[in-house]
Automatic annotation (TrEMBL):
Name by which UniProt lists this protein: GlsB/YeaQ/YmgE family stress response membrane protein
Matches recorded under Pfam families: Transgly_assoc
Topology relative to the membrane: Multi-pass membrane protein
GO CC annotations on file: plasma membrane
Entry's localization field: Cell membrane
């Protein structure tokens, strides 16, 4: 169980960092938020993989397709975060 949690944190950090590198512009996030971005992106990528391709984690946790899905999910979450934060800050007086 501890190994699973540590691997989720490490993959989350890697996926979040790669998503931040792929999305242009400055994102004001620390390491913790980058890790959270990657973890949420992993869930989004896993959900999209299951929805589109019928793939799941039954074949093993660390797969190249799972890591790529995590990065894609993290990019989607980051783009949504940027869109909502711009929209929210534009309404302030």
């Amino acid at each position: 169980m501890l190994g699973l949690i540590i691997s989720i944190i490490i993959i989350g950090l890697i996926a979040g960092a790669l998503a931040r590198l792929l999305v242009p512009g400055k994102q004001n996030m620390g390491i913790g938020m980058t890790m959270l971005l990657g973890i949420i992106g992993s869930f989004v990528g896993g959900f999209l993989g299951k929805l589109l391709f019928g793939a799941d984690a039954g074949d093993g946790f660390l797969q190249p397709a799972g890591i790529i899905g995590s990065i894609i999910g993290a990019v989607i979450v980051l783009l949504l975060w940027i869109a909502f934060s711009k929209r929210r800050s534009g309404n302030r007086v």
